[in-house]
Amino acid sequence: MVPHAGTDSQVWRNTVELGRALAALAPVRGSRVRSRAALVFDYPTWWAIELDSHPNNTLAYADLVLEWYKAAWYEGIGVDIVAPDADLSGYDLVVAPNLYLTEAATAANLGGVTARGGVFATTWFSGIVDASDHVHLGGYPGAFRDLLGVRVEEFHPLQVGETRGVRLGEVDTVGERWSEQVELRGARARGTLTDGVLAGGPIVTENEVGDGGRAWYVATDLPLDAKRVLVRTWADQAGVAPVLPGLPEGVEAVRRTGDGESFLFLFNHTDEPARVPASGTELLVGAQLPGGWELPAGAVAVLRETTGS
């Protein structure tokens, strides 16, 4: 690890500091992140959705999923990245963006979140085909149609740069890339189109399922700020709180737990110091910190939390 410049270099000093930090973090060993929200990423869908025979040939699946991850990140909601057939019993909120390739069994697994009173959300061009790329007949979104309480006869894809006005609750925003002629079949509209040939029609829907479960459908590609509004709504419905409420935007918090202890990793991605509403021992410097201490701009801290903080 000695660079060509030798030990009198920033690379060497950083390497030595990394070794010291890893030793200081020994108490964290064996702890785990335990999220109550999950974001679905599916490799077969990545292949299938980007085929060139679709109404929109500009889709990049990884980027579409990443946008929803960003929305959760900015809202302070910790999420696990899971496969659509994963065990979802530990999650109260599951978001599966653009899950184009969906088997019936997969849809049932994802829908099981709502049967337990949780929240499931998916977006446009989801549930369309099975593993053989055969379309689920009877109307879109195919495999999710009954769960979502909607039926779509036709897609209305948008050209690059073309938008449609969307009224999302009390928020005016726009839809890009895609729109659909959505028919409510038990769901209720939570967002409507405000212009274009489908003006007045539902574009974001919510369906009540079982005993307190909710299934949401977003039939257009919304900008990041509108995605954040929806993630915040879904998290509130599911009872999923931010990792550390009260942090300024741009400050990331990740909590690990194990053996009755809690460790809070904090990353200040901003250019300003940030107030941290948690107390405990900062492991990297060995200092006891009260609630309300400041994390410098660009800094990292690992807090062994005080019980009840």
How would you characterize the overall build of this protein?
The protein has 309 residues and is α+β, with helices and mostly antiparallel strands. It folds into two domains: 206 residues, Class I glutamine amidotransferase (GATase) domain (Rossmann fold); 66 residues, Sandwich (Immunoglobulin-like). The protein is 22% helix and 31% strand. The chain contains six helices and 19 strands. A nine-stranded mixed beta sheet has the order 3-2-4-5-12-11-10-7-8, sandwiched between helices. Strands 1-13-14-19-16-17 form a six-stranded antiparallel beta sheet, with no helix packed on it. The mean pLDDT is 95.
Weakly predicted, low-confidence segments: none
CATH class of the largest domain: Alpha Beta
User: N- to C-terminal separation?
Assistant: 39 Å
User: How many β strands by DSSP?
Assistant: 19
Provide the domain count.
2
Helix content: 10-25%
- What is the CATH fold-level name of the largest domain? Rossmann fold
Figure out the total of helices: 6
Q: What's the Cα radius of gyration?
A: 22 Å
Give a brief rundown of this model.
This protein is 22% helix and 31% strand.
Keywords for this entry:
2 domains; elongated; Immunoglobulin-like; 22% helix; 309 residues; alpha+beta; Rossmann fold; nine-stranded mixed beta sheet; six-stranded antiparallel beta sheet; 31% strand; 6 helices
Helix and strand layout, with pairings?
Layout: H1 10-24, E1 32-33, E2 37-40, H2 43-49, H3 61-74, E3 79-82, E4 93-96, H4 104-115, E5 119-123, H5 145-148, E6 150-155, E7 163-168, E8 171-176, E9 180-184, E10 188-193, E11 202-209, E12 213-218, H6 224-238, E13 251-258, E14 261-268, E15 274-276, E16 280-282, E17 287-289, E18 293-295, E19 300-305
Parallel strand pairs: 2-3, 2-4, 4-5, 5-12
Antiparallel strand pairs: 1-13, 6-9, 7-8, 7-10, 10-11, 11-12, 13-14, 14-19, 15-18, 16-17, 16-19
